[in-house]
Amino acid sequence: MTDKLILALDVDRADDALAFVRRLKPHLSLFKVGNQLFTREGPAIVKALRAEGVDIFLDQKWHDIPQTVAHAVKSAVALDVRYVTVHASGGLEMLQAAQEAVKGSRTEILAVTVLTSLDDDALRQIGFGHSASDQVVHLARLAVKAGVRGLVCSPQEIELIRRYVDEPIKLVTPGVRSASEGVQDQKRTLSAAEALKRGANHLVIGRPITKAADPVAATQALMAECGLA
User: Active-site residues: which are they?
Assistant: First the structure.
């Protein structure tokens, strides 16, 4: 069993999510509940999954005024999730409020830097003057200044963050693929094995497992590819 690979439960219904967890929990211990599933099923799905004995990464990517985010984070803490996400671009005060809200709990804040679906051209379209890599480093430093010790970034920025952020930091990389798959809707990605080699702590994996004919075999093959088997 490993927590290095996080399965993204990007499904519509609780029954489907529970079926994946029950099949794969002998191999994976950490599962992501994102907007698709949480919006339909609510906190009940997190409670049901926790009852299966697995850890949950609640990926809501909050970006709001500090007090609102703090209250949302406290609600996540009450669900006993392991990780919860906020956008680093919400600013220093918001990040500090989120970090304060997890004090005394096992829940950790992960600050999202730049979405892996965005590249330099997309950032320019929304008014950012930095390249994606520069913006990631800038936001990583802001998050660390706020006391956050976990980041979500593309695998292409792992080495940059390790180089330019002095504090120990946990890095979670979404959208990675097996070596045999294409990038699909991700614009800044690498293979799972390469992401781990560069220093990622956790990899978020979705369709390579959930869309596989045999999700268990796909999980085992990816673990072997990454040297985790």
Answer: 61
